[in-house]
Amino acid sequence: MPAVMIVGAQWGDEGKGKATDLLGESVDYVVKPNGGNNAGHTVVIHGEKFELKLLPAGILSPGVTPVIGNGVVVDLEALSEEIEVLKARGVDTARLRISANAHVVAPYHRTLDKVTERFLGKRAIGTTGRGIGPAYMDKVGRLGIRIQDLFDESILRQKVEGALRQKNALLVKLYNRREVEIDEITEQLLGYAEMLRPMVVDTTTLLNDALDRGEVVLMEGGQATFLDVDHGTYPFVTSSNPTAGGSCTGSGIGPTRVDRVIGIVKAYTTRVGAGPFPTELEDEWGEFLQRVGGEVGVNTGRPRRCGWYDALMIRYAARVNGFTDLVLTKLDVLTGIEEVPICVAYDVDGTIHHEMPMTQTEFHHAKPVYEMMPGWSEDISTCRTVEELPAAARAYVERLEELAGCRISAIGVGPDRADTIAVHDLLPDPAQQRPAGA
Question: What is the pTM of this model?
Answer without folding.
Answer: 0.89
